[in-house]
């Protein structure tokens, strides 16, 4: 049985993951901004067999509340051994290009808030000498592209942070898993036309649960994104800058 | 919001629609959705024709409205959002000793869709339609009214929305009364019958003792072979039966073949073989509920086998007093045409009245079969079948239909005018416009 904290629990990927954990009897502490949504997700997880679900309303960009929330989670579940960081927002590239304010806000949401949370969580888990920290980054963080480099560069920061954290915590027996989903059909991406490369949140969730069980390092979800990104990363910049990606 | 091409199960009708995903039961529709176009809920797209489509309008997709709200295993009352699939409900409740009182031939339909089409199953003669196990639901209207509907409360909207084809508003959640089972297994018998007369005898003999009855009929059989088939009857098995584990083998039909795999040559051969699949007159066995109720669900996307032109299903019901004559005539006409498919089902519908104004079943016999889309010749056959149907006061099932005439619909569903009063002014569907346009 795991004691799991999920930040960004109302996201489609987090919810699908929570359903799998609920069915295996894990205890869950769900954090999201919207109280109504959290309550309906918690009720669903209880029906699916989750023995313990607690909720906490928080905006991840409220950096001051992070430790209070972590205390509440540890108290509610009598300790924590797994964390899933799943919050984020798909930045509107065009409007960010016109606004420093928007760009910084996106950066806060997708990178800095997660980094702040990870700082606290890492220190707590390091003391316990055990635990799994799962962080949802993105394939978009593997290389900046003109169509979404605001989002992509935030995720790149998160990916790089996790990579360092993984090395640091390895000796304490704490695993840091970077999840890099490709295109996922979620409310965040309703605006997009869906093609063959698109995956369901349920599919990504299976990758996350599996990665937690096997304490993997970097997980592309679905797996084929690893090959796609390998190619994209190796296109020479002189050519890459001319592409319309 | 994006425009998408939405399809229905028959793969004939396509509709270009703006798609809006409804993902929270607390959200109101109005601020989110443009009112310049008409709306229609879209669940899992398992209706065969155009009843789930609204060409040029907005599709309110309910797939993400898929949360359970509560389940009491002591009394079997389940409340869930309308986008939950029956398959997810079964996964939850069967291990806890409960089952859906009514289930259609596929478990991949949403609760909202099952209500809006008032679906029925192999136990119609005992339990009636899906609507009869619905205790209540919430109907959200385009004017932001949120109506709790049940037999006691807003009973008129309750009756209009059950079988209401999604036109009365959007169903947000529903409360379902489940039934107890003692195991996930079904004890059944399969009996070969040689004629329609024998089919009717079997129905009469079986309907009291067997909760589930259905039959496959050889739609290619002519002369002496007319109306031969296999009659299946079963009951939930008691504890201790079928201890073996069930290992489902789910496959996907991998591609759309360039032509329909069902044609006049394969049809005759397949039907003759299928009829002979059991050598004995009667076999008795035990089966897991999944292959018993949902044999077609084991091949995902089986609708592809009819090729790029898709297929129609013709499902009709004819009243009891004319059922023998009408069924014989329909089968003769179909066999003569050489069209049809091996998926032909004959089923006795019971006397239990359906709660919905536009519910399909009536006491009598229901015949359902698929037809690969062969264009004009097929429509000529449909026209001949419609004539038989109209003369015997039967009707076609909107959930399966993509072509019936408005007059046949209005003749078959005498309460359509009463129903029309409950249609939400913002809602419409390709089906509804089609059956209303020739008035």
> Quick check: average pLDDT of chain B?
93
Provide the domain count of chain A.
1
Count of DSSP-assigned helices of chain A: 9
CATH class of the largest domain in chain B: Alpha Beta
Question: Could you explain how this protein is built, in words?
Answer:
The complex is a heterodimer of chains A (245) and B (439). Chain A is α/β, with parallel strands linked by helices and 245 residues long. Chain A has a single domain (3-240), classed as 3-Layer(aba) Sandwich (Rossmann fold), CATH 3.40.50. Chain A has helices spanning 12-23, 35-47, 66-77, 93-97, 100-128, 149-170, 201-214, 225-234, 237-240, and strands spanning 3-7, 27-32, 52-57, 82-85, 132-136, 175-181, 218-221. In chain A, helix 6 (149-170) links the parallel strand 5 and strand 6. In chain A, helix 1 packs parallel to helix 2 (35-47) and helix 5 (100-128) packs parallel to helix 6 (149-170). Chain A is globular, with a radius of gyration of 18 Å. The mean pLDDT of chain A is 95. Chain B has 439 residues and is α+β, with helices and mostly antiparallel strands. Chain B has 2 domains: 68-181, Uridine Diphospho-n-acetylenolpyruvylglucosamine Reductase, domain 3 (2-Layer Sandwich), CATH 3.30.465.10; 185-241 and 250-403, FAD-linked oxidases, C-terminal domain (Vanillyl-alcohol Oxidase, Chain A, domain 3, 3-Layer(aba) Sandwich), CATH 3.40.462.10. Helices cover 23% and strands 26% of the residues of chain B. Chain B is built from 12 helices and 21 strands. Chain B has helices at 86-93, 111-116, 124-127, 155-161, 196-206, 264-275, 289-293, 323-337, 376-391, 406-412, 416-420, 430-436; strands spanning 2-7, 14-21, 39-42, 58-61, 68-72, 77-81, 98-99, 134-140, 146-150, 170-177, 179-180, 185-193, 212-217, 229-236, 251-252, 282-288, 299-300, 311-319, 344-349, 364-372, 395-396. In chain B, helix 8 runs antiparallel to helix 9. The longest helix of chain B is centred in the C-terminal third of the chain and has 16 residues, at 376-391. The mean pLDDT of chain B is 93. At the A-B interface, helix 2 of A face strand 2 and strand 5 of B.
């Amino acid at each position: 049985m795991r004691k799991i904290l999920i930040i960004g629990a109302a996201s489609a990927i987090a919810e699908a993951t929570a359903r799998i954990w609920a069915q295996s009897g894990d205890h869950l502490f769900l954090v999201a901004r919207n109280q109504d949504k959290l309550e309906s997700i918690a009720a669903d997880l209880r029906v699916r067999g989750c023995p313990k679900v607690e909720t906490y309303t928080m905006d991840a960009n409220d950096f001051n509340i992070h430790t209070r929330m972590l205390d509440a989670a540890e108290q509610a579940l009598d300790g924590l051994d797994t964390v899933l960081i799943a919050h984020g927002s798909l930045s509107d590239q065009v409007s960010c290009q016109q606004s420093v304010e928007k760009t910084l806000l996106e950066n806060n949401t997708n990178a800095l808030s997660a980094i702040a949370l990870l700082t606290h969580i890492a220190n707590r888990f390091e003391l316990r000498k055990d635990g799994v920290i799962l962080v949802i980054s993105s394939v978009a963080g593997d290389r900046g592209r003109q169509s979404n480099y605001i989002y992509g560069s935030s995720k790149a920061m998160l990916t790089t942070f996790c990579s360092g954290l993984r090395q640091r915590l390895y000796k304490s027996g704490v695993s840091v898993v970077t999840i890099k989903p490709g295109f996922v059909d979620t409310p965040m991406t309703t605006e997009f036309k869906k093609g063959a490369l698109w995956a369901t949140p349920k599919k990504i969730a299976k990758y996350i649960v599996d990665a937690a069980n096997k304490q993997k390092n970097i997980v592309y979800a679905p797996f084929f994104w690893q090959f796609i990104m390998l190619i994209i990363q190796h296109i020479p910049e002189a050519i890459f800058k001319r592409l319309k990606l | 919001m994006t425009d998408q091409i939405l399809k229905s199960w028959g793969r004939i009708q396509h509709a270009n629609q703006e798609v809006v995903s409804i993902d929270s039961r607390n959200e109101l529709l109005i601020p989110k959705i443009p009112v310049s176009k008409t709306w229609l809920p879209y669940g899992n797209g398992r209706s065969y024709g155009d009843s789930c489509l609204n060409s040029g309008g907005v599709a309110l997709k309910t797939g993400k409205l898929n949360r359970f709200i509560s389940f009491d295993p002591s009394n079997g009352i389940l409340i869930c959002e309308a986008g939950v699939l029956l398959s997810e409900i079964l996964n939850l409740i069967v291990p806890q000793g409960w089952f859906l009182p009514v289930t259609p031939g596929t478990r991949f339909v949403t609760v909202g869709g099952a209500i809006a089409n008032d679906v029925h199953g192999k136990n119609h003669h005992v339990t009636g339609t899906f609507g009869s196990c619905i205790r209540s639901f919430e109907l959200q209207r385009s004017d932001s009214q949120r109506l709790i509907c049940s037999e006691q409360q807003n009973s008129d909207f309750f009756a209009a929305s059950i079988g209401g084809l999604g036109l009365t508003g959007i169903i947000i959640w529903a409360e379902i009364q489940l039934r107890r089972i003692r195991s996930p297994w079904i004890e059944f018998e399969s009996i070969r019958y040689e004629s329609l007369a024998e089919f009717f005898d079997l129905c009469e003999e079986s309907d009291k003792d067997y909760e589930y009855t259905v039959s496959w009929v050889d739609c290619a059989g002519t002369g002496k072979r007319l109306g031969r088939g296999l009659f299946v009857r079963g009951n939930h098995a008691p504890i201790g039966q079928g201890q073996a584990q069930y290992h489902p083998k789910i496959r996907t039909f991998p591609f759309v073949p360039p032509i329909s795999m069902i044609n006049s040559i394969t049809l005759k051969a397949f039907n003759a073989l299928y009829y002979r699949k059991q050598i004995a007159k009667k076999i008795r066995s035990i089966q897991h509920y999944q292959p018993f109720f949902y044999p077609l669900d084991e091949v995902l996307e089986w609708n592809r086998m009819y090729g790029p032109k898709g297929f129609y299903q013709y499902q009709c019901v004819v009243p009891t007093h004319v059922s023998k004559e009408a069924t014989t005539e329909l089968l003769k006409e179909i066999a003569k045409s050489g069209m049809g498919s091996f998926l032909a089902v004959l089923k006795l519908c019971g006397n239990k009245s359906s709660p919905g104004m536009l519910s399909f079943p009536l006491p009598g016999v229901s015949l359902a079969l698929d037809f690969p889309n062969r264009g004009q010749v097929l429509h000529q056959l449909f026209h001949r079948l419609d004539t038989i149907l109209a003369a015997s006061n039967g009707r076609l099932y909107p959930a399966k239909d993509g072509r019936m005439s408005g007059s046949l619909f209005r003749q078959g569903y005498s309460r359509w005018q009463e129903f029309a009063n409950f249609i939400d002014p913002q809602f419409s569907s390709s089906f509804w416009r089609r059956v209303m346009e020739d008035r």
